[in-house]
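Notes to self after the call with IL:
- keep both proteins in one doc
- input above output, always
- annotate only the second one for now

Protein 1:
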Amino acid sequence: GKVFLGAAEEISKYSPGATTAVSWHASLSDQFEMHGLYDGCSKTVAFDWVFPCVKGVGARLMRFVGTDSRIGRAEGLQKSGKMAEARKVYEEYLAEHPNNLGVLFTVGLMYYQLKDFKAMEDAYAKIEIYVPDHNGIRYNHALALAELGKYEEAVARHRSILVQEPDNYAVLYNLFSTASRMGEEALARETIL
């Protein structure tokens, strides 16, 4: 049956793997896996061709997967500096639950530590599909893009964050750094002035 929850935490009393949630906002909890985004941007529906849509805005279908001991084990390995082992555990989990945004977020940060910027970019690109307006996700995605030499994409994300957070020092610094790497001295100067 249908149940309306007041908060995502209330789902813990339901069965993992057998419970589905629909929400206007994706969850970054590691207890949910994304199953779909229904934003009206389908190329196979005539109505969606005629009327413009906004990417990333719409209902999200998520499956409750519950708590998995592998996540705690991977976090422990990561904290103790056993990054290769932690990566293996996370990636085994993601092989089963590839759209778990919470785990993708965590593993994206680990990829940054490992300097595996391609894997980091892949993780944050996937999250950004479901959570396009989350500044932390866009910021981390921009860091990966800049390291991969995709400067214009990184700059676009930094600028979009600065619209909402004009005094965000980390974003300003990384925009300056990216502009400098691009050879865009005017943009770099504009950033620090």
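Protein 2 (the one to annotate):
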Amino acid sequence: LFETVLAREQDKYTGGRILFVECNAEDAASFHPQLAEHLDCGIDFLLLDHLENFAATYETGSKRYIAIVTTFFHYSLVLQTLQPLGLPIYGVVTEMSAKSLDALRHYEPGARLGVILKPSHSIQYLVSLLTVVRDDLDIRAATSDEAEAAELVDWAQVFFLTHPCERLVLARRPEAEILYFCDQINAQSIGI
């Protein structure tokens, strides 16, 4: 009980805590320092898969938040599930880092680029974006379905994917060159 009261008192003087909701631990770990750089408060992480449980137990739990933050990929679901808690819910924009975009410049024309994403609705967006940057690459895509992705994993020279798909590629190609889709938070979207 003392630790709970102490934590609440500390939160009053440190700007409170924000809950960041993301679909995988790798992105949460990557985005955490980016959020911390711009926000003057503590940041906790919740996996998207645990939203329902969090919503059901928040009122009786020991942690309190001043806001909830998620990426716009998950904003609708987070809003629908957690809005009844009465906390403000903010979305942030994610984008490809300069490192990932710069890597595209170094591939020879015709290089085989494999795109594998868990959310299939994002595949066409990423393929279109990559094609705008480099229309001379051979780009093919698959979902994270293991059977669908197997041929692509064997074919591609380099991969653009989301963190949940990384294991799928590395299981077949441990030496694979991997770049990540939406691997940074747009700093301007944090300030909105």
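Annotation: The chain is about 45% helix and 25% strand. The mean pLDDT is 88.
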